[in-house]
Structure formats: structure tokens, C-alpha cells
Design goal:
Number of domains: 3
Distance between the termini: 61 Å
Helix content: 25-40%
Strand content: 15-25%
Shape: globular
Structural class: alpha/beta
Number of strands: 16
Order of helices and strands: HHHEEEHHHHEEEHEEEEHEEEEHEEH
CATH class of the largest domain: Alpha Beta
Number of helices: 11
């Protein structure tokens, strides 16, 4: 049965290779060399009558090559792509991304890519382990929820926002926090990075992370100015820490909705104090890339350094998980999931990525010296340390 309750669609008979792969055989080389496609395969594989098939276009069983074309088509549309399809698409060389975009635009038979399209949220199809399925249901019942742009979101670890499909990915299939492969720094402290297929998730070298601050979402000029100034300070703090570059595209602050031309917008969203602020990780689809600020952020009784809150959220934007999900943190600290992570250094109770919980952590949410070491292991030295020559 499909998640919607209907039977599986027809099984495709043996048929020629998809036309797109015939026209562009270099896609076949990509298929064999991709590090992400094996995860797509695992999610959509169906064993039937001793043969392996793959679920494509929501309810049809097709070949491995059909699955590649289907997943790339979904990944080409960031507003409708699940995180894995989007990551697969972004793994393509630039010229092949254009091939996929062109084929998707010109072929009305391509699978739908809107938020309600089959396949978005059908990750439950891939959950065959009853223990994992039970864990997903337990989290759905326990985690706080709110609606974001028409989508029900679950709040894990206090500020991680997951839709239903992402929640299925989030559930740990195995404890996979790896020890640091480099000596810990003074005091034995550090950061936690994200792994995908055994590789650290990070922005490409030289990539400028652009953002705007949506003025119309804030409750007045003072809040807008505060958010804008604090974002500038927080981004500069990270730029002084490691080799990343942020740029505020101020001319887009007056946009009514999510503007093109920036990686993410910063906006006020009243979730009644469910979180102070929330962000995203680099591998999430474009539609999920935004920094959200609750009105409680502007309260005189906030209890945390306001710039520090944004430093923490920008740590997520750079690909760093919560420090307190690791062993060594107080048991009262929230830590639903520690899978697919890697310890860049040993546990740091004062890390910018550590909540104030269990008597440890810092309300300043400052970047520690060993946060610097962990961040530089991922992004290198700050760009300001280099003299650029033509």
C-alpha cells in the first residue's frame, strides 16, 4: 500500500533506456559515480517476485535509470524537492544541471514537483524497520509543531525544524557519532559536524552566503534595525572564525515574500515562544532555507545574548549540529538524534552550539577558542588572513 492508501501502480515492462539518458550518456557515468544516489536507491527500492524495482513518480515501479531521471527532475525544482533529491541534483556538474532543468521544463510528463506532489513526504514508504517506524510515530506525538508556509513542521532539539519527510530521515538508524580524527585542542573541546555518505556537509569553497532581512515581517522599525544589526555582528563573528563569507543584500529587505537572489531571508515568525530563533543546514532544499525569529527574541527578559542567539543559528547554517547531542553532555539536555554526525573535536560544554542546560553552557553563546579549531577544520582559516593577488 502507498502512504495514501492506494495500491501500487503498474509495473513497467522491460523498456528502452530513458530518452534523456540516451541523449546524454554522461548521466550514466554520473549514476555510477554518485555518492548520493545509493541513498535514493535504498529509499525507493521495492523487492517483488525476486526482482528489484524502484518506486518512481509516486506510484509506479520502474528501473534504476528511471529512478535517476525521476529524482533529478524533482531535485531540479527546489520548491518541491525533498532534501535527498535536491542534494542529488546539486551533485551534478553545472552543465548537466541545465540539461535536467531544460528537460523538466519541456516535458509535461515529468513528475509533479509541488509540495503536495507524490513522493514528497512519502519517506514512510522507505521505513521497513518497525522499531524505526515506531520511533517516528513517537516523535510525531511528542515533538512540538507549528505551521510554516502551509507545511506542518516538527521542532526537534529546541530549534531544528523538520517536515514529515525530514522527520523520517532524522530518526537515528544507528548511533553514528564518530570520534575526532585530529587531536583535541586545549581543554578538549569543539564542534559537531554533519555527515552525508561519510563526507562532511559544508558550503563550497568561495561560496558567498547571501541573505536579506525582511523588513515587513517585523513589528516596527526598531525590531527590524535590531535584527539587521545583530545579523551583521553575528556573520562577522563567523567570518573572523573560519573561511566563510556572508553578504547582506540590503536592497532585498523590502521584499514582500521570499526573494530570489539570496541564499536565505531572515524573518519574524510568531510561534508563541516555541523557539527563540531557528535556522537550517546547508543540505536542506532552498524552500527550507530561512532564519526565523520569534517575537520573544526582542523581550527584555530574553536571558541570552541576542547576538549570540544568531551566532548559534548561523552555526547551523554552516553545518554544525548541537554540541549537547553528544556523549558527555548532561542527560537533561535535549538530544533526539545523534546519527550522521562527526565530532570535530571533543565535547565542549561552552560551545556556541551548546544549549544552556544541565548547569553547563553559556548564555553568551560566544564562539570559543576550540569552536574556532573545529570550524577551521571544515572551512579553513578566515579569508581575512590571506592576501589575495590577481
Amino acid at each position: 500500500m502507498t502512504p495514501g492508501g492506494g495500491d501500487l501502480g503498474p509495473i513497467r515492462p522491460e523498456e528502452p533506456r530513458p530518452a534523456l539518458l540516451v541523449a546524454h550518456p554522461e548521466l550514466l557515468a554520473f549514476l555510477d559515480g554518485s555518492t548520493i544516489f545509493p541513498r535514493v536507491e535504498a529509499r525507493h527500492r521495492v523487492e517483488l517476485d525476486g526482482r528489484t524495482h524502484y518506486l518512481v513518480r509516486g506510484d509506479t515501479l520502474g528501473s534504476r535509470e528511471d529512478l535517476l531521471v525521476d529524482a533529478l527532475a524533482r531535485g531540479a525544482a527546489p520548491e518541491g524537492a525533498d532534501a535527498l533529491s535536491r542534494a542529488l541534483f546539486l551533485e551534478l556538474p553545472g552543465h548537466l544541471q541545465e540539461v535536467i532543468r531544460g528537460a523538466t521544463r519541456s516535458d509535461p510528463g515529468q513528475p509533479p514537483t509541488g509540495p503536495g506532489a507524490p513522493g514528497r513526504g512519502d519517506m514512510a514508504m522507505a521505513i521497513t524497520d518497525p522499531v524505526i517506524a515506531q520511533k517516528v510515530e513517537e516523535l510525531k506525538a511528542r515533538l512540538p509543531t507549528f505551521e510554516l508556509d502551509g507545511t506542518l513542521m516538527y521542532v526537534a532539539e529546541g530549534d531544528l525544524l523538520l517536515d514529515e519527510a525530514q522527520l523520517a530521515d532524522y530518526v537515528p538508524r544507528a548511533a553514528n557519532v564518530e570520534p575526532p580524527n585530529l587531536p583535541a585542542g586545549p581543554g578538549g573541546e569543539g564542534l559537531v559536524g554533519i555527515l552525508q555518505d561519510g563526507k562532511l556537509v559544508r558550503w563550497p569553497p568561495g561560496f558567498v552566503i547571501t541573505y536579506c532581512v525582511l523588513r515587513s515581517t517585523f513589528r516596527g522599525e526598531r525590531e527590524y534595525a535590531t535584527a539587521r544589526a545583530n545579523m551583521l555582528t553575528a556573520t562577522r563573528d563567523w567570518e573572523a572564525t573560519c573561511g566563510v563569507s556572508f553578504r547582506h543584500v540590503a536592497e532585498l529587505d523590502g521584499s514582500d515574500g521570499r526573494p530570489e537572489g539570496v541564499v536565505f531571508p531572515v524573518r519574524l515568525l510568531d510561534v508563541d515562544g516555541l523557539f527563540i530563533a531557528a535556522a537550517f543546514f546547508p543540505h536542506e532544499p532552498a524552500s527550507r532555507r530561512q532564519v526565523l525569529i520569534d517575537p520573544s527574541y526582542f523581550s527584555p527578559s530574553l536571558g541570552f545574548d541576542a547576538v549570540g542567539v544568531l551566532r548559534h543559528e548561523l552555526g547551523h547554517v554552516l553545518g554544525f549540529r548541537h554540541e549537547h547531542i553528544r556523549s558527555g553532555a548532561p542527560p537533561v539536555c535535549p538530544k533526539e538524534d545523534a546519527s550522521q554526525t562527526i565530532d570535530l573535536t571533543a565535547y565542549d560544554p561552552r560551545s556556541v552550539m551548546h544549549y544552556y542546560c544541565g548547569g553547563v553552557g553559556s548564555r553568551d553563546l560566544a564562539i570559543t577558542e576550540v569552536d574556532v579549531q573545529g570550524a577551521q577544520r571544515v572551512y579553513g582559516m578566515p579569508l581575512s588572513r590571506f592576501r589575495l593577488v590577481a
